[in-house]
Amino acid sequence: MSFDIDLTLRRGNRTIAARIASHARLVALFGPSGAGKTSVLDMVAGLVRPDAGRIAVGGALLFDSAQAVNLPPERRACGYVFQDLRLFPHRSVAQNLRYGERLAPPERRFMGLDEVAGFLGIGHLLDRRPRSLSGGEAQRVAIGRALLAGPRFLLLDEPVSSLDAARREEILAVIARIRDELGLPILYVTHDERELARLGAEVVAIGG
Ligand SMILES: Nc1ncnc2c1ncn2[C@@H]1O[C@H](COP(=O)(O)OP(=O)(O)OP(=O)(O)O)[C@@H](O)[C@H]1O
């Protein structure tokens, strides 16, 4: 199973709950703003601890409250592309990518920097600083940094919500290639139904 997740988290006066049991390579978490989609990604990444539940991805158990299993984020091997990207502003695109590369243990390095740059079409941007990039270019650099870290799966938080229609299609095509050519399971957050249709995603509703 690609995603086998059942968790709850109390935040303020609401309870965030998610149940995902899927063999699909791309599963979309869909729901209104504030429903808890980012919180679910944070729990899968190991940045926020669920109150209770179980998280397994690609057959690897990452968290189980009943068995007292709670792998730290660096042992979960997830490539997390945050909604605000979090590129290092004072470093070049190449340095941002190398940061990801350095995180990857040798046995999980399935792509080199040149290959990732070619795959994502960012080879001409390597000397630029993030602030000089367009939204779509910055998104591709953030995805590249995540891929270079040798992930076993990807967490993508609203990766196209800030882009115009043309750039949106460009990034969705990249995401479809990551799913089809690299075969990485992807957990994808959106509140836009057009993206679900475009990606043919399996949909899990959160909150609402
Ligand atoms: N660190 C925190 N402490 C307490 N409450 C939080 C924290 N982070 C988020 N929340 C609350 O948890 C709820 C879910 O937030 P979350 O960001 O997961 O939702 P979301 O579905 O991703 O929303 P959006 O689509 O707007 O990004 C919100 O009510 C939010 O205010």
TrEMBL record:
SMART domains: AAA. The keyword ATP-binding applies. The keyword Cell membrane does not apply. One of its GO terms (molecular function) is ATP binding. Residues 2-208 form the ABC transporter domain. Keywords: ATP-binding, Nucleotide-binding. InterPro entries: AAA+_ATPase (IPR003593), ABC_transporter-like_ATP-bd (IPR003439), ABC_transporter-like_CS (IPR017871), Molybdenum_import_ModC (IPR050334), P-loop_NTPase (IPR027417). This is ATP-binding cassette domain-containing protein. It comes from Novosphingobium bradum. The lineage of its organism: Bacteria, Pseudomonadati, Pseudomonadota, Alphaproteobacteria, Sphingomonadales.
